[in-house]
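Practice problem: predict the structure.
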Amino acid sequence: MTNLWQDLRFGFRILLKKPGFTSIVVITLAMGIGANTAIFSVVNAVLLRPLPYPEPDQLAWVWTDNRGEGISEDISSWPNFVDWRAQNRVFEGMAGVRNQKFNLTGAGEPEELRGANVSANFFELMRSSVARGRGFSADEEQQGRDLVVVIGHNLWSRRFGGDPNIVGQRLSLDGQSYNIIGVMPPGFQSPNKSELWRPLVADAQLRGNRSIFWLPVIGRLKPGVTRTQAQAEMDGIARRLEQQYPDDNRGIGVNVVPMYEQLVVKIRPALLVLLGAVVCVLLIASANVASLLLARGAARQKEIAIRAALGAGRWRVTRQLLVESSLLALLGGALGLLVARGGVGALVILGPRDLPRAESIGIDARVLLFTFGLSLVTGVVFGSFPALQASKLRLTEALKEGGRSDVGLRDQRTLAVLVIAEIALALLLLLGAGLLLKSSWRLQQVNPGFNSERALKLRLSLPQSKYREGVDVSMFYQLLIERLNALPGVLAAGATSNVLMGKVHPSSSFAVEGRPRPNGAPPELPIDSISPGYFQAMAMQIVQGRAFTGQDGSDGLPVAVVNETMARRSWPSEDPIGKRFTFDEPGPGSRWLTVVGVVRDSKRQGLDMGVRIECFLPHTQRPIRAMEIVVRAKDNPLALAPTVREAVWSLDRDLPLSEIETVEQMLGEQVATRRFNLLLLSSFAMIALALAAVGIYSVMAYSVTRRTYEIGVRLALGAQKSDVLGLIVKQGMLLALIGLVIGLLAAFALTRLMESLLFGASVTDPLTFALITLLLTFVAFLACWLPARRATKVDPMVALRSR
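Answer:
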C-alpha cells in the first residue's frame, strides 16, 4: 500500500510537470467517456431499469392479432375480453384499460386531464393499493354507479393542495360531478401516465357486439408462467372463439406482449446502435491516448533507465506507468462526467416527446459506477501495452549521453495498428451517420398529402352532461368554425376527429354495395368525422367529386369522401362517385353511404408508413365530442393561439384547450425519433472523424520528428523535397487505406443492424459508401500531408548535427 501511495504521488507530480500532454489526454478521454456515460444514462433508464411495479415481468398487454388487416397489436371487443378472462389458466387476472381525457372544471382555469377507464381489479393487477380511501368495487362497473374516481398523488397535490380530507369530496369532470373515493400513493405510474381513474363501463351494445373493437387489455401472468406458455394458451382460446363465432372472429388471434417489451420495442434498436457508436468513439479516443503514451514512453527512456539502474524492477516500472495512465483515465472520467451531465439534459430536451421513461433519465449510482469502471478499465487496458513497452530497456544504450529515444520497430507497428483501427472505426460511424442522413433526406421528400405550413392545431372535448349527443355537439362546432373563419389573419378553419392517424384509430369493417365480402377477416376502414372547410384548412386536394358542404346535414343523404387508395381498391376501373358502402351488415335496413368525393392520399399514419384506405364523414352526420381544430393562418400560426382561445371561450368558458401546436410540430413528432438518431450518430461520427484525423496527424508528426536525421541525410544526398513529401504521405496513406478496407468490410456486416432505422435507403447504399469513403480519404490525406510538408522544410545541416 505504501508503494502504491508513492506511485500515486509521483504520478501526480509527473502529470503536473507536463500540463500540455496531460490536458490533451484528459480532454480526449473525456470526450469518449462523457459520450458513453450520457448514452448509458439513457440506456439505463429506458432498457435496464425494471418497470416501477412489483413483479413487473409478469405484466403483459393482451392484443388482438387482426391477421386480415395485418395488425398484430389491435384492441379487443368486450365479448372477446370476457372470454379471454374466463377461459385462460395462465393469467392471475386481466383488466380493461381504456384511455380517456377529461375536462376538469371548477376552481381555477379549466384543465384537460389524462385519465383511464379501468376494470375494478386494475390496481390489484398493478400490485398497488390506494394511499387514501379505497379502490373500485365490481358493482361500480355499471352505469349509474360509476360516478366515482381515484386520483393520482400529483393531481391531488397540484390541484387540491394535498388536502387530507379529499376523500368524499366532489370534482367536476366533463360537467359531471364525481365522488373522489381514493388517492394513489406517490410514485405510482399508470401505463399511460394517467392522473385519474374511473370504473370501466360497457353498455348493452358493446357487451353484445363481438365485432366492435374498442378495449385495450392488460394481464398479469401467474408466477412461473412464461410468455411462450401464455401465448400457446391464448392461441388455443382464439382458435376456439374463431370456430364458435366465425362471422365476427374470422382471422382474429391473440398476441401476448410483455409490458416492458411493449415499452421499449421501438426505441431499443436505436439505443443499441447509439451505444455501439459511442463505444467506437471511446475506442478511437483510447487509441489516440495509447499512441501518445507510446510516444511519451519513448521520450522517457533515459528517466526509466535511471530508475532501473537504481534498483527498480520491470514490474515496479510497469506499475508506475499503469498508475499514471489510470490517473489520466480517472481525470478524463471526472471531466467526462461533467460533459455527460450537460449531455443528458440535452438528450432529454432534444429527444422525441414519446421517449419512454424520459423522466427517469439522469446520473444515478449505477451511472456513476459505470463511469468509474469505464475510466479504470480504459486506463488499465490502453495503458498496459505502452507501459510494458516502455519498461523493456537496454540500459547501456539508454544511459549514453547521446542515446536516442526512438520508437522501436515493434512500437512503430503498434502505432500503425492503432491508426488503422481508428480509421476503420471512424469510417463505420461515418457510414452509419451517412445512411441516416440519406434516410432523413428521403423522408423530407415524401409528400404527406397535405400542407403543414402555417396551420395551427388544438384539441377540444365537449362534456356529455352539457352537450346532448348529436345536434348540440354538431351545432357547437359549426358555430366555432364560423367564428374562427371570421377572425383576422385566418385563411380557413375546420375540425376533424383526428388530424394524424395514431396506433389506435377509430375504424370499422365495411361492405361495398354489389360486391361479396372478401374471405378472411373483414377489412377495417379508418373513419374520421370532419367539418366543411377541413380539407381547405389542411390543403388536402379533392381529385374527384366534391367536399362536404353545409347541405350535408343530419337529415340529408348519408355521404362520404374516400381517399384514392380506397377508391382504387373498392371500385377498380370504375368511377367511385355515386358508389355506396355500409358499415352495417348488408341488407334492407342497412345505412348506405354514398361517395361524393375522392381526396388525395395522405401519409397521416406517418411519413415512413404506407397509405391505408380511409374515409371521411360529415361531422353533422357523425358528431364526435372530441375534435381537433385546424386553423390555417396567413402568417405565424402560433400568433393566432390567444385569439382562437378567446373564440372558444366566447362559446363556453369551461372548455379547456389542449395540445395547442402547429401541424408542422405535430408532423415533426412522427419523425422525432429518426431525427434524434441522426443528430446523435452524426455528432459521434464528427467526433470520431476529428479524433481519427488528430490520431493520424499525431502519429505522422511524431514519425517525422523521430526521422529528422534520416530526412536530413536524404536531403543532403540530393533527394528532392517532393520525394520526401511523397515518402511521408505514402506511408500514412497506406495505413489509411488499410483502415478504409477493414472499415468497409465491417460496415457491410454491421450496418444491417440499422435496417429498422432507415427509410428509402439500402444498408449498403453505394453512393453513401463512396462519398463517405472519399471524405475520410481526403481527411486522412490532409492529416498526412501537413506533417510531410513540415518534413520538407528540414535543414540538412541542423538535422545531421541533431544526431
